[in-house]
Amino acid sequence: MRWIILVAALGIAGCDTKTAEEQAADDARDVAIVRANQEPPPEELEPQAILYPDIEEHDLFGAGCSFVPEGGGLGAIAIAMENEGYMKRGEAILKFAADLGSAELPYLARRKYDGLDYSFTLDLEGAHGEKSGMETVDYPARLAVKDGQDRVIYESDGMAQCGA
Fold first, then answer.
1. Along the chain (164 residues), what's the average pLDDT of each consecutive run of 10 residues?
2. pLDDT per position as a tens digit, 19-66
3. What predicted TM-score, i.e. pTM, was given to this entire model?
4. Alpha-carbon distance 86 to 107, whole Å?
5. Are 85 and 57 in contact (CB under 8 A)?
C-alpha cells in the first residue's frame, strides 16, 4: 500500500517537470518580456518653425540649407550649416554638431548632424536643384530625426533651400 502511494506521488511530481529545452525557452521569453518593458516608447517630436527672431537671437546667419516640410509654409524647421545644425523644439533652439564624416551638401552643409538627445539627417533628392534666388537653390528633400536609441521620431518630405 505504501508502495502505491509513493509511485502516485512520484507520478504527480513528474507531470510538472520541464525539459531543459522547455525551461530555456520559457526563460528566454521571460527575459524578452522584461527587456521590452524596460525600453521606453519613442517620444513624439513636433519640430517648430525657426522664425526670424530666433535667427537673430541665436545668430543663425550664414551659408547652408534650411528644410521646410511639405505644407509647412515658409518656416524652416531645420537649418544645416558648415559646423552646426539647428532645430526648434517648443521654444528651445536645439544645437547639433555637423558630422564631418557625412556627405557634404551644397553651401558647406552636411548630411548628418548629432546633438545631445537627437540626431538628424537631411537628404537632398537629385544632384541639381531649381534656382530660386540670386544665391539660393531649392531641392526636394527628406528630413529624418532620430532619438538617442537611433529610433526615427520625426520624418518628413519637403524642400531644402540651400544658399548664402
1. 51 66 89 79 90 96 97 90 97 97 97 97 91 94 96 96 95
2. 888 889 988 998 888 877 777 888 888 999 999 999 999 999 999 999
3. 0.75
4. 16
5. no
Q: Using alpha carbons, list the distances in angstroms from residue 69 to 85, 120, 142.
A: 16, 14, 8
Encode 125-155: b = buried (16+ Cβ within 10 Å), e = exposed.
Answer: eeeebeeeeeebbbbebbbebbbeeeeeebe
Q: Which amino acid is at 125?
A: E
Among all chains, which residue has been given the C-alpha cell 509654409?
Answer: 73
What are the strands, taking DSSP E only, across 28-127? 47-48, 64-69, 78-81, 84-89, 92-98, 112-114, 118-124
